[in-house]
Amino acid sequence: MGEVEVERERGTLSKTLPKHPEVIIAICHFAATCASILCCHSLIDSRKEWPALVVGSALSSLASIGGIVYADSAIHSLLLGLCIFATFMVNGIANGNETFESFSTSLQMSHVLLLVAMASRIPPIQRVFCMFSTSILLNPVMIASLCNLPLISLIMGSGMVLAKKTPVKLPVLSTTVLALSTLILCGLYYRNRSHKNGNLILQKEQQGMMVVTSLALAWTAQYASQTEQNVFIPILVGSSLTTLLSLTFASVADAWDAVGSGQFQMISLDTAAMIIYVVAPMLVLASIACQKYGDSVIDSVSEVLQSQFSNDFLQRQTPETAMISGLFLLLSLSTTVGISVVNMLSPISAHLFSKAYTHGQPRTKKVALCLHFKDLLSESDVQTNATMDFLVTANKAIHKPVLNIFVSAHELRLYPDWIVKLHSAGHYFGICCTSVKEMITAYDLFVKVLKVTPEWYHVGTAATSRSPDVLTVATELGVKVAFWSTHIGITSREILRKEQIPTLCQDVAATRGGSFVYLTNDWQHSESLTAAIESIVKKVSVDSSGIQYSFSEMSHVARDDIPMTL
């Protein structure tokens, strides 16, 4: 028998997974909520405390999901603030407190996060937030400092608590393991990510908001650790569990280098099966072992610790405060840092609501060079015309690069002649937008101007361009969603910084092709963009080992129907 090529989309579950992503989100939310309730059920002494536990676990998990689905820390801060407010209101009403007293306590606990969320929409305050960068939050030294201090406080406090044999209702062991597991996975994922220069959050306002939200939640957690421990701990646990679950799916898919939403969903389903059939039984066995041998182990440790401290010293200390304070800070950091890492490295929302790609198939020796049409425009019409003329003749050069240019509805109205001319010259066009209305308009104008339907939609830097409603409309229109695996930004007259070209070459060589390179021009001079394109094409087309790469349209770099030889 001869070889037969079968056209099919390999390694995906596009025909079997639910068509409604809300089903997948609801399942993850239910699992995280139940796990949070099981983790914190030891806090319950009476029926009056159950409502706050259930509401806090459910709403905090939902807040983390919202922050990941919308990839916006402002939304996460708002939802988490509302979660805290609702939980304390329910707790006050369940305990028979007056409405005003419950309202006052709820507002006192949630006002910082709510104020941060509202302030993020005010332009002058946005500029202040821009001073904070994710390099602060994700700096290894900073993370080590922020995590080691509460961890030391937690360990020292726990040791003294065991020495004094002070009863503690909080699930210290399980929550500490949860926080440390989340932070360790964050570090491993960020350090070993497939695309070192594929940060998906490029706006300084969004990056600053991540840092400010982390500080706001840390402050709120520290305040709650002194006053409302039993009510606040389910909120932190629910948030951390959801974050850990999302990190697990994203990091495993990244380790397997998933291409597109179909492979991401397939790998995530396999990961969920491993959690259910391997991780969950191990946790159950560990819980049974703790119940059976925990008391004897604690007694042995207490005797050892008592021999290290004098009775007078132990009587003067209040280690419970240090222990709980460290625990709350660790849990709050695990939530905010984890969500920041997920949003920066993995478009989980796009994989659920659309057919999204951050890169194409490896070893194709093809690269997609992407840019937005607005970056080709200059303040001077002469410069703009020179740039357009350069691009018209670009694919007649030695390496014949094909650019992937994305246009908005506004640009389709103003520059239809240039768009048609560039398209006729062999360059590939797609659409970009920031809202549902603009996407529909851009789609219709695209068909009217170029006489073909757009196949790709590029997300770009705006936060609203990757919202679920925009992604859903893209799916309904049959348009695939493109992110990037490498970002190159022009920010000064230097055109490209010295480290950018070697970094790009390294990213392309690591996978032997399949890269989506997103080129942005913040310098507002189109001549710098043309010089950058020339430099990139020249340096990347042939690497140091002699392998040649071609700059192709996105549909050739990321294919859905790669033939499989049987």
Topology summary:
Elements: E1 5-6, H1 21-40, H2 50-69, H3 73-94, H4 99-119, H5 123-129, H6 134-137, H7 140-164, H8 172-191, H9 204-227, H10 229-255, H11 260-306, H12 311-316, H13 319-345, H14 348-353, E2 356-357, E3 366-372, H15 381-394, E4 403-407, H16 409-414, H17 416-424, E5 428-431, H18 436-450, E6 456-458, H19 468-476, E7 480-482, E8 486-490, H20 500-511, E9 516-521, H21 526-540, E10 550-551, H22 554-557, E11 564-565
Parallel strand pairs: 2-7, 3-4, 3-9, 3-10, 4-5, 6-7, 8-9
Antiparallel strand pairs: 1-11
Helix pairs in contact: 1-2, 1-10, 2-3, 2-10, 3-4, 3-9, 4-9, 5-9, 7-11, 7-13, 8-10, 8-13, 9-13, 10-11, 10-13, 15-21, 20-21
Q: Features of this protein?
A:
about 575 residues; 22 helices; single chain; six-stranded parallel β-sheet; three-stranded parallel β-sheet; 11 strands; disordered N terminus
Can you describe what's shown?
- The structure is a single chain.
- With 566 residues, this protein is α/β, with parallel strands linked by helices.
- Helices cover 64% and strands 7% of the residues.
- The chain is built from 22 helices and eleven strands.
- The strands form three sheets. Strands 3, 4, 5, 8, 9 and 10 form a six-stranded parallel beta sheet that branches. A three-stranded parallel beta sheet has the order 2-7-6, covered by helices on one side.
- Helix 20 links the parallel strand 8 (486-490) and strand 9.
- Helix 5 (123-129) crosses helix 9 (204-227), helix 9 (204-227) runs antiparallel to helix 13 and helix 15 packs parallel to helix 21.
- The longest helix is centred in the middle third of the chain and has 47 residues, at 260-306.
- It is elongated, with a radius of gyration of 27 Å.
- The chain starts with a strand and ends with a strand.
- Residues 1-9 and 312-317 have low confidence and may be disordered.
